[in-house]
Amino acid sequence: MTTLHILAAGSLRGVWPDLMTAFHHQSGLTTDTHFGPAGLLRLRIEQGAQCDLFASANLKHPATLLQRGLAMHTGKFAANSLCLTARRDVVTENDTWLSLLQRDDLRLATSTPLSDPSGDYTWQLFDNIGQVYPGCGERLKQRARQLVGGIDSLAVPTGELAAQWLIDQQHADLFIGYASYAPHLINHPHLLVLSIPEPFNIQAEYGWATFTHSANPLAAFLSTTAARAILQQYGFA
User: Fold this and answer.
1) What is the pTM assigned to this prediction?
2) How many domains does the chain have?
3) Long-range contact list for 17-22, CB < 8 A, 24+ apart?
4) I need a surface site. Which of 47, 86, 193, 209 has the fewest CB within 10 A?
5) What is the pLDDT of residue 1?
6) Which residues of the chain have pLDDT under 50?
């Protein structure tokens, strides 16, 4: 029986088992998946790592692999956005998502740009803020602690969410991450999850790249109604 080797963005870790179970029932194929920051996974592929399908948290990495002649096909399969998680006991009655980000007394943590699309999207968020409030975006970039998603980042224990773990371990008071994690984070009474409205928030687009013909059924499955329904159950659009 064919086993597909998959490299997938870490933010897909929660939804991926259900997706692969549904795919197996449909196709009979099995999968073996390794997760990590999509930028670092792309580097592994460029360095020769075995991979049938790469599921990225952005469209740029699959497109780069296609342009360099490593990938056969690419496509889009999901979307996400960002949210702000705060330690509840630092939030005052008058605080908003933006006022929390602007408070110099709070430690703001993010993922790592270039290595992890979550960090890239957060930097885009800061740019959006800067367009409305000149200078604010650059100050946020200077204050932000890039604690996860990089080569030498802190290792978040398996089964833990970065926002929860970083705040629980006193590494940060605030964390900007994917909104798909919000349904899990709100179950922790010591955390407060705040939505980030338009026009500030970003649209995170998830894409795949195939490297063998064997991966074509999985790429097709990711665009089916069944796959979209599973993704939506886990907070993806």
Assistant:
1) 0.94
2) 2
3) 18/230, 18/233, 18/234, 19/222, 19/227, 19/230, 19/231, 22/221, 22/226, 22/227, 22/230
4) 47
5) 65
6) none
